[in-house]
Amino acid sequence: DNTIVIWDVETGKALCGSPVGHNVVNQLAFFNSCDHKVVSIHNYQIWIWDSDFKNKKLKVEDVNMGSIKRIFKCVVIDPSDTFAYVGTGTGDIIEVSLEKALFKWIGPVKRLFSLGINVITQIPNGDLLVGAGDGTVAKICYKDMKLKSENKV
């Protein structure tokens, strides 16, 4: 029904919600250090949501992507809740500042993953592991978005 609803799993009750219009949510990721903030990725948009559990509302902030247009497929938030890394259907990774709701940069440098990035996670040293539609699994340095290693499965 194109609505984001945050539920209390223990009680089974809805805590708050908001419609997202016609823009289908492709994935959600909760912030690591608080339970009231979440990032949603869509086709061509990234939104940061802040929950108001008392009034049962979600306040949304649109991430400024400048001229970047992508279908966003997967997202991971770094442990400090400073950045989100978003995999795209084009096969690149977008880094977003969560504090400023602003596009930072795009990578990996001189490399697109065939058939898009379907899954992304961050390992303890901060580097990113991505899985692409063509079966490629790659490790990307989060500091400079350069490819560190790559295997095809």
Helix content: under 10%
Instruction: Report how far the terminal alpha carbons are from each other.
Output: 36 Å
How would you write the strand order of the largest sheet? 3-4-5-6
Provide mean pLDDT, rounded.
Answer: 94
Estimate the strand proportion.
Answer: over 45%
Rg (C-alpha, Å): 16 Å
Kindly state the number of beta strands: 14
Task: Note down, in words, how this protein is organized.
The protein is mainly beta. The protein is 0% helix and 54% strand. The termini are far apart.
Task: State the main characteristics.
153 residues; mainly beta; four-stranded antiparallel β-sheet
Please render the helix and strand layout as text.
Layout lengths: L2 E6 L4 E7 L5 E6 L6 E6 L3 E7 L4 E6 L9 E6 L5 E6 L4 E5 L4 E6 L9 E6 L5 E5 L3 E5 L6 E6 L1
What's this entry about, in short?
The protein has 153 residues and is mostly beta strands. Helices cover 0% and strands 54% of the residues.
